[in-house]
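Table S2 (continued). Query chain:
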Amino acid sequence: MRFKRILLKLSGESLMGKQGYGIDAERLGDYARQIKEVSEGGTEVAIVIGGGNIFRGLSGASKGFDRVKGDQMGMLATVINSQALSSALEAIGQECKVLTAIGMEPIGERYAKEKAVAYLKSGNVVICSAGTGNPYFTTDTASALRAIELECDVMLKGTRVDGIYSADPEKDKNATKFDKITYDEIYARGLKVMDLTATTLCKENGMPIYVFNMDEVGNLKKVMDGKEIGTLVSIG
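Corresponding output:
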């Protein structure tokens, strides 16, 4: 396998599948099988899932919700998604643990680096939920933080597009895809790969980011096998 330990960031919106809301069982199953495949191949897998299929704090604030309470609701949405993925993984025989950034026993154990690393080394998939545990931080930032903290080789950002483009490929037919790009180029071009806090965290700590289409079954294994199907973000 290409990497020994990864942080996989999954989109909450992607969990909606074809439904347009909530959690699509078929999409969840596809994710679980792909994750189990790379875990069985010897890669230690930590995961952070967004909550946008249920509630997004920032959009809630725009509708009149208190921002702090809205972000806390978003954190709870990520816990729901994490429990769903945990259930799907366990159903196919993959051991996993849900760790939460805020105390939520018995739903999940309180996150601590040492605990997470021990579980990873024992073959468990570790799902880090509830974001950073603080408002005003996105799950992208939580992913960057956990990737750095857990000393992962790479942060894999699974999206519904096959990499980073010069513009939104769903809106601009002339958008061109980058095979590789630097953090500074992302800043200069104003590309919305992740929020600036997450991108800066990765840059300052030398954490490479690989953006790829997770919704196409088999792509996670392709990334692990070294096939260039997405976009690598690095210092240069």
